[in-house]
Amino acid sequence: MLVLFGILVIIASLILGFIVLIQNPKGGGLSSSFGGFGTQVMGVKQTTDVLEKGTWLFAAIVGILCLVSPAFIPKDGEGSAPNKELIDDVSTKLPAATAPANTVTVPAVPDTNAGK
Q1: Residue-level pLDDT, tens digit, the chain, 116 residues
Q2: pTM for the predicted model, two decimal places
Q3: Which of 67, 97, 102, 104 has the maximum number of C-beta atoms within 10 A of its C-beta?
Q4: Calpha distance 78→59 (Å, rounded)
Q5: Distance CA 50, CA 17 (A)
Q6: Sign of torsion over alpha carbons 58, 61, 63, 66
Q7: Which of 51, 33, 30 is closest to 42 using CA atoms?
Q8: DSSP of 18-76, one letter per residue?
Q9: How far apart are CA 63 and CA 69, in angstroms?
Q10: Can you say how many angstroms the Cα of residue 7 is from the centroid of all Cα atoms in its chain?
Q11: Domain segments of the chain as ranges
Q12: Pair 69, 2: CB distance under 8 Å
């Protein structure tokens, strides 16, 4: 379920970013590079209103998804790992502290300069 919320937040954030980028601030924004498509079809004032409402809508969607998603985090003991029992069983059977089998002990080399 958390994956679904994550995907929805990412999609809503991308749409929000796109809406913010196409808005026309005091200068020319990306909306001017689309050939004035929005101004020819809906008019300047209506385009601004739609984009502003879309900005608020998608900002609210991202905020609500971020606030609701922690409710779906699994509680302690309810791990979602498919082999949780197997992992717990193996971890209890391992000895507490063992040395790896491939270790090699190197004898100490006597210092030849000690007698000089």
Answers
A1: 888 989 999 999 999 999 999 887 665 555 555 555 544 555 556 777 888 899 999 999 999 999 999 888 877 655 555 666 666 666 666 665 565 666 667 777 777 776 66
A2: 0.50
A3: 67
A4: 32
A5: 15
A6: negative
A7: 51
A8: HHHHHS--SS--GGGGGTTHHHHHT-HHHHHHHHHHHHHHHHHHHHHHHHHGGGGSPPT
A9: 10
A10: 9
A11: 1-20+46-72
A12: yes
Tell me which residue has tokens 């000089």. Answer: 116
Q: Which two tokens stand for residue 58?
A: 């998608």
Q: How many CA atoms lie within 13 Å of 47's alpha carbon, on the beta-carbon side?
A: 17
Q: Would you state the structure tokens that stand for residue 114, as one six-digit string?
A: 């000690």
Tokens 């717990």, located at residue: 88
Q: Is 8 exposed, middle or buried (0-12, 13-18, 19+ CB in 10 A)?
A: middle
